[in-house]
Amino acid sequence: MRLERLSSNHRSLDVPGLPTLFAAGDKWVSWTSALPMPRAAAALRQPPGPWFGRAPGFDIADEGEIPIDLENDDGAGDAPDPVMLDAARWLLAHDADFTQVVLDTLVADLPRLRDIENAVVLGDDDFRLPRQWDAAMASSLVWLETINLPPVAGHAPYIGVGFRCAWEPEHGYGLMLCGTEVVERGGADTAVLSWIAARHAEDQGG
Predict the structure, then answer these.
(1) In 60-134, where does DSSP find H-type helix?
(2) pTM, two decimal places
(3) How confident is the model at residue 57, as a pLDDT?
(4) Burial per residue of 183-199, b for 16 or more beta-carbon CB atoms within 10 angstroms, e otherwise
(5) Which of 185, 180, 178 is nearest to 203 (CA)?
(6) Any residues with CB less than 8 A from the CB of 119 and at least 6 apart, and which?
(7) Grouped pLDDT means (10 residues each) for the chain, 206 residues
């Protein structure tokens, strides 16, 4: 982890089976860390191309790592909900499965994304989606900014995945997963809306 990017007011928490977690804030606390997930990092955090427009965000993930965010719904800061910690451990154990489902979803989502693009008027300099793409092309057009782990229990861990992307610089691209099941696709905010996970868990009888 790139610990030099942490401020002096961050506090640390060690939990079994995970890298150290760090928290900032007083009344409302958000925890962050970086998981060693070489497959996901290689596929989803490639050096961004000219479409990116600026340097990647200043998270603490180093090469081969993926940043995660954990925030209790009530903002309590003593420790993240155990459900979120279990989700982080699941990710560590399922790097390849997680990476594959994200890439497969990106590739399969192109027709829907093109339909959205065709419904708006683009400027001459705006990015246009290709007519077809494979996993290699799709992964070159996104940058994984964060994984958000909502405090929602289900039959598998809920994982929000938020991207910057070439075709939607304002709203980004996001997924909510339940393990390797795709629950929702949308803008990057899909990754941080815990009610999406809660609704799915309720529908599944969780």
Answers:
(1) 82-93, 95-108, 110-118
(2) 0.91
(3) 58
(4) bbbebbebbbbbebbbe
(5) 178
(6) none
(7) 84 93 79 95 85 66 93 79 96 98 95 85 78 91 92 95 89 95 95 95 83
Mean of pLDDT over the chain: 89
Q: Is 5 left (phi over 0), alpha (psi -120 to 50) or beta?
A: alpha
Question: What's the pLDDT score for residue 194?
Answer: 94
Report strand pairing: 173-178 vs 181-186: antiparallel
Q: How many CB atoms lie within 10 A of CB 108?
A: 12
Tell me how far apart the alpha carbons of residues 152 and 149 are, in angstroms, rounded to a whole number.
8
d(CA 59, CA 5): 7
> What are the residue ranges spanned by the domains of the chain?
3-203
Radius of gyration of the chain from Cα atoms? 17
